[in-house]
Amino acid sequence: MKKAIAILGLTTALAGASQAGAVTVTLACGTVGQELQLCKEGAARWAKKTGNTVKIFESPNLTNDRLGLYQQQLAAKSSDIDVYQLDVIWPGLLSQHFVDLKGKIPASEVNTHFKGIVAANTVGGKLVSMPWFTDAGLLYYRTDLLKKYGYNAPPKTWAEMATMARKIQSGEQKTNKGFAGFVFQGKNYEGLTCNALEWVSSFGGGTIVDDSGKVTINNAKAALALDTAAGWIRDISPRGVTTYGEEEARGIFQSGNAAFMRNWPYAWALGQSDDSKVKGKIGVAPLPAGVGGKPAATLGGWNLGVSQYSKNQAAAIDLVRYLTGPAEQKIRAIEGAYNPTITTLYQDKAILAKNPFFGSLYSVFTNAVARPSGPTKSKYNQVSQAFSTAVSSVLNGNTKGQAAVAKLNTDLARIKGRGW
Question: For 138-298+370-417, which CATH superfamily applies?
Fold first, then answer.
């Protein structure tokens, strides 16, 4: 890879696009939806402005696969990647490998971002990464089909959603056998942790591990939430939903084959694209509430950090500063429906014109439920894997909710016993 970088730098210099002292910075970009294209375009604008070169490293789609690859690179102290795209749950796990951006990026700029997200990126007083875009789970629905089947508003509860999905699915399957009532991320990976945390929290079942580090998952409300979700399989959700990630669910919904979908904000812009079968027929609402609970959306989002092992740290920090700034965040919001982390952009008329739900669902993004990466620190990945595996077992009919949360309680206690 170093040879490729050298060639790239030479090519740029020969083309006259470089300036004295110009360097090549390698940026790891995500590839879900429009991520890769927007990442390339933003990097190209910075390169043009500075005379430097950016080499793009395409990261795996699934979060778990991306983390595994990053950990290998960082453990080897590799300088191949300068800027990493980090999930909001990773700073505690990876903080020792990243440059402290506090003081290197002006506090006046850092303070324009949501305080909670800056806090999530700060470990032991060290600013591990800068907020790039935030996420929260949303309910997408077909406005035309709700109207067709006599519904005036999206569902407020999971029970209402199931009833509506069942009726719409029954009607649509008369001419489209593959039509589904509800699709979500049911594959056993981090996406299932996000979905299931929303179910559990919306039923009043807590957040797996509370802020003090106490394991709280073993309760009747959490068990009921998982059993409720399992009841959707082969009813309003296809059997294959247990193999879906974000893109599989989006593909089905966007092709006109589902009434409801749980996904992140990025799916909005793609659903409104010219090749979408549901363009102009999509509504977005908060996720439903469970029995006796209230709506819950898992906090997601991605950030940019500079590797301690980068040989071009100054340029890499400048790239992070540029990409996470207001101009780039505005472009990404308008073109890709990526939620800004800069508070003032939620009053930007151009952004709201393209993404009207950014304004109406502002409270969903600012009150999203955090995964317990803070209290579980370096053990979060083990906690999440144990949780998603337990949930997957319930969804696949191998166990019931109460047995699953009881076993999970034991498994998490064992992980906690090794210290978190």
Answer: Periplasmic binding protein-like II (3.40.190.10)
**Which superfamily is assigned to 2-128+300-366 in CATH?**
Periplasmic binding protein-like II (3.40.190.10)
**First vs last C-alpha separation in the chain:** 36
Question: pLDDT of 47-104, one tens digit each?
Answer: 999 999 999 999 998 999 999 999 999 999 999 999 999 999 999 999 999 999 999 9
* Region(s) of the chain under CATH 3.40.190.10: 2-128+300-366, 138-298+370-417
What is the pTM assigned to this prediction? 0.90
Q: Which helix (H) or strand (E) holds 225?
A: helix 220-230
Sheet-wide strand order for 53-58: 53-58, 24-29, 83-87, 299-306, 130-136
Query: Which neighbouring-strand residues pair with 98?
Result: 307
For residue 110, list its beta bridge partners.
Answer: none
**Rounded distance between C-alpha atoms, residue 142 and residue 158, angstroms:** 16
